[in-house]
Amino acid sequence: MENRCLFLPPSTLAARLQDGSLDVALVSVTEALLKPGFQIIDGVAIGSDGPVFSVFLAHRIPLETVQCVHLDPASCTSVSLLKILLAEQGLYPEVVPLTSYDQASAVDAVLLIGNPAIEFARAPFSYTRLDLGLEWQRQTKLPFIYAVWAVRDAVATTALATELREIAARGVARIPHIIERRSDFDSDFRRAYLGGHIRYTLGPREKAGFERFRHLLEHHTGSLTYPPRFF
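Predicted structure:
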C-alpha cells in the first residue's frame, strides 16, 4: 500500500480503516472497541485526566429535567460517554442530531466537541457546562481516552508500533512551538488546552479507564465490545 498520510474526519478515517484502504488510523475509542481485527499502539493516545474543556454538555435547565440532548454531528465516542455518565445517575434523555451549530445556543441541552465547543464555551451564553472529562474522573477516579492509533492485524508489527510512538513523541515535543506559532484563540488558552487539558499517554491508569469505559459501554448500551489488544 502507498505510504501516505491523510487528514480526514474521524468518521471517514474509521470507515477507510474498516474497508482496508487504510492500514493505520487515529480513531475514536468506540471504533477500536466495537470493531474486530485491529490492534492499538501502546503508550500513545488522546485523552484527559480531569477537565477536557472541549467535550461538554451545555444545559440551561437543571440536568435532571433535561428530556432531549442535541448532538454535535462530529461526535462519536462523546455520545457514548455522555449516555454512560447520565445513565450512572439514572438519567436517560432522548438524543437527536444538531442540525447546525447556529442552533446550539437555542436549545435546552447540547453536546459539543472540538473547536465548536471551545467557541461556545468562550461565548457569552448562559449555560451550565458538564465537562465530560471532569465528570468521568469524578465518577471513576480515572483518566478517559478519546482516540487511539488503531492498526489492522495484517500490518501490525513491532517496527510500526515503534515508528508511530517516535512520531508521537516528536509531535508532543513540538507542542510549545505550536502554542507559540498558531493563531487559534489566544496563547494562554492554547497553553492550558494543549499543554494541560489534553493528555497524550496511554499508561496503566489510562488503560484502566479504557477498560472501565468498555465495561460500562456494554452494561448501558448492550453493545458487544472487543477487548483492546495493545502492542
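Summary: The mean pLDDT is 93.
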